[in-house]
Design a protein that fits this description.
Blueprint lengths: L1 H7 L14 H40 L2 E2 L9 E2 L3 H7 L2 H33 L5 H9 L6 H11 L5 H8 L13 H28 L4 H9 L4 H12 L1 H16 L3 H6 L11 H11 L3 H31 L1
Antiparallel strand pairs: 1-2
Length: 319
Amino acid sequence: MSTTAAARQTPGRSAPVPGRADDGAVTRRRGVRQASGLPWILPAVVLVIGLVYFSIGYTGYVSTLDWNGFILSPSEPVGGANYTEMVGDPVFWRSLWHTAYFFVITFTVQTVLGFVFAALMHSKLRFGTLFKVVVFVPTVLAPAIMAPVFRQIFDADGQLNRLLDAVGLDAVSRPWLADATTAMGVVMVVTVWQWTGLTFILFFAAMSQVDPEVMEAARIDGAGNIRALRSIVWPMVRGTTAALALLGLIGALKTFDVPYLVTKGGPNHGTEFLGTYIYQVMVAEKHFGYAAAISVALLVLAITGGVLMSIRNRRAERS
């Protein structure tokens, strides 16, 4: 009887073990649990698709139109004419150049200052907590609050020129915001002042992960503080530097608030960035199609720059 029952079992499949759930039942329960989680993430998925991907697609569509932005106004399809106009637009290329060297200079200065400040904090600096607060506070200030202050400081009749006149350096005073070179310098100063605190905090956190025994061994071998920072600490915080470079690149590409609030892109487009130029073309000139084309170019630049930096960082980590 038992032999006959065993023979009737499906070949290759063992008999169910008493007290153990069937594999099919486990799979079904797992599928139910996974399916029950879909309603929770569905709103987020719809939100991302609606706000991000739909917006990108719609911007790409608008970039092929000649349109003034008003819903009831007629729009005329122009194909790639807006992109052709962008290639021949000297203000666009000037804005792109400003964005590029703005990123290089501000990232370099912020990295050096942030690294030095973090190293000073790890050297048991007196009043270290106060120093940390003073350096980091500008990071949490809104540009809408601090930009008008700097605009007033660097104005032709501002506090900086008054101070220079008071100490006998009136020959140095000038209308800082009326000259393209000095106006760009002012924008860079404001940006470095605002974001060095973030660089400092990230470097400080990265240096906290360095094994103290490694530093102690380096000092026993005769390495001074500068040599230890250059040969031991700096290579160990390379990942933080790469992350800051990526953040700096994205920040430079979308720079708008500080140059617009301090100089409004002037004088004579001397502090024009891609973000401020898009705003100028869209709001002041009502050329929505061309503004959308520049926005698409900005998106392509951001994605390309991010991918290239990621590839470079991975190769550096492997080497």
